[in-house]
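WARN no homologs supplied; continuing
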Amino acid sequence: MQFDNKAVGKTIRTLRRERGLSQDVLSGFAGIARTHLTMIENGTKQANFETLWRIARAFDMRPSELVRRIEEETEKGINT
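OK structure emitted
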């Protein structure tokens, strides 16, 4: 399986919307700039592990759960 920035962004955007959070709020919880979050969600910027960890914690989930969801999204893209 290859790393897919688009799958990362789609997963984070979906989780954020499911929780009713704006980019401003999520980026504040995660301690990152809103513009950084926007680029991650758009797939134009690759998030490093620390950033994914911060985003996962902002969602009140384990980083491994966020990675699992990203993997699922990546597999959907491969299988379509």
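The mean pLDDT is 94.
OK
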